[in-house]
Known about the structure:
Layout: E1 2-7, H1 14-28, E2 32-39, E3 52-58, H2 63-84, E4 88-92, H3 94-104, E5 111-114, H4 125-134, E6 140-143, H5 146-156, E7 161-163, E8 182-186, H6 195-203, E9 211-215
Parallel strand pairs: 1-2, 1-4, 2-3, 4-5, 5-6, 6-7, 8-9
Amino acid sequence: MNITLVIPSLAMGGAERVISQLANQFIKTNHEVNLILLGNLPDFYKINSNVKIYRLGFENKNPIQKITTEIKIFFKLRKLLISTQPDAVLSFMTKYNVLTIMASLFTGINIYVSERNNPLKKISIQLSLSRKLFYRNAKGIIAQTMFAKKVFEDTLNCKNIEVIENPVINIENSLIKKREKTIITTGRLIPSKNHISLVRIFSKLKRKDWKLKILGDGPE
């Protein structure tokens, strides 16, 4: 198959990690893979050299440039989708999912979108309305949990939603020198990551022999 993946960048982040793993795995299983990066951020994740990467160059230095660049990106993306004619397109993150669906309208291309955020997270009225309007044009919608699926079914009035959890990398036992009673979580220190709930739950365990380590930075 000819598969196209769409995401703003390959900078450090959970969505970026997953899409880089998908790109590399699809190539290993003999698919043709196009990776469309909408922005200009430097790459953190490594991509197989056989993956075709297209960088559309989104910039946001001021409000006027943001608007003009978004228009340019829309037409660049649409032109690229039409010229490459993928069998399926997978887009990550709400705003860019809407953009990808809009860019593919009337092309007959199968678009799949993946929702990566907390389903209860508030988004702008404009984005919320756009999602309700355009997600019905997606071939499929991917949620990360059953709870998220239920929320999206209720709020988007869509039934073509499937749950696909994040992939887990197998670590060879030979690389593990010693196991410790430690729980590690990684992520930006922002409200949507909800580290505070983990801290509260851990505090109720009353297990002095276990440690909880949070790796990340941010305003919290």
